[in-house]
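Human:
If only I could read backbone structure tokens as easily as an amino acid sequence. I am handing you a single protein, as its sequence and its fold in token form. I hope you can help me see how the letters and the tokens relate. Thank you; the sequence and its tokens follow:
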Amino acid sequence: MRLALLSPNPRRLFLRLLATGLSLLAAGCGTTTGTSGEETYVPPARGMPVAWVKGTRLGEDGIFQSAHRGFVSMVDLKPVADAVDHSDEPLAVTPGPHTLAVEYRYSNLMSRAYLPLHARAGVTYQVMIEHGREATEEGRLYSDFWLVDTTTGKPVTAIYHRQVTGGKKGTIFYMNK
């Protein structure tokens, strides 16, 4: 008799596990991390002095006519809303020091670097990218990032070299350069 009290009822155990699982699932749905206005980057208000940062779009290649894009995805660790969709539009930033997360995208390939910028009011900067394959046995894909002052054409940051992720050898998305 004592053994019967200690052994769990399989149906009751299953129902408890099911209820626990559904509770955890519902709790997870309630705590999704959406981005509120405080968490995303908010450009300066109109009328304030600003600097601008533009993205880059390099020639369209391949079957799908995809462009190689370089753009700002975060400003001071705050994500830019719909950065990929607005990668061709200049982004306003306040004058002063910033850290810009810039991304390279081509089809399903991507890389990211964090560039320091001391923005000056009235100046437009552009994200520059260079992509290719390293001259090693592995021949890893890479992208280089830097910022230039569009008025002078001179670089305002060092060149940041990053490995590209994504893609797969032998697929139509694999970049040969």
Q: What stands out?
A: DSSP finds two helices and ten strands in the chain. Residues 30-37, 170-174 have pLDDT under 50 and may be disordered. Helices lie at 2-6, 10-30.
